[in-house]
Fold:
Amino acid sequence: MMKKLVLFDLDNTLTESRSKFDPEMRELLVQLLEVKKVAIVCGVGTDQLLVQLDGLTSPNLFLFPANSSKFLHFNNMQWEVLHEEMLTPEEKARIIAVIFQAYAGFDIPWDKSYGEIISDKGGQVTFAALGEEAPLELKKKWDPKHSKRLAIKKKLDKKIPEFEVTIGGYTSIDISKVSKAGCIPQIKHHLGYDIEDIVFIADAMFKGGNDYPVKQTGVDSIEVSCPEDTKKWLRNMFCVLYDKTHH
Structure:
């Protein structure tokens, strides 16, 4: 395992949607942070990402919330912002107006949603069809084959081509100035790592998924379907590291 940085997606890769790490995943990440630089690039905003981290910190940990529109590093006992690309109020208003048009005709429970349907994450606007706090079992049933959101993404791509439109999680569409691939030049600039130094683990690597742009950069990518797959990969990696250090 010669990679210098392990780059992870968050929801459906390290955790279930909008959930904290389970004890085993947390322990695996703590062990990984002792031997590797680790970065998380995700569709959730900064505040939600820190909730899901649940106090996990390390000088070896780097964060790219809101699809890499912000870059944070834990330094001097606090999270320090190294880079950000925010949407203007005018851009957010335009995106929201287009979202309402694109979602017409789909089964969106505008009056019975679970939490916010449209959320402002600074550098990104996210539309969560059932609301961000919807029960996981409902989220999984709404668009299991991505067909609804791919159809909506097609409409959005035509109306707001100047923005990145990608699918995240089970019910969300993210609209931002940059895609998750924006983390790659930031990693190179701030850490000095090239593509060949990075391995990327994520679930939404299909075309239109918010992990797809990272895969398209040419970085070595490992597709998983759930956190259990990621745990298996981590356990296998630790076995390889152990064997190398004991020969």
Observations:
- The chain has two domains: 5-85+179-245, 89-176.
- The chain has a mean pLDDT of 92.
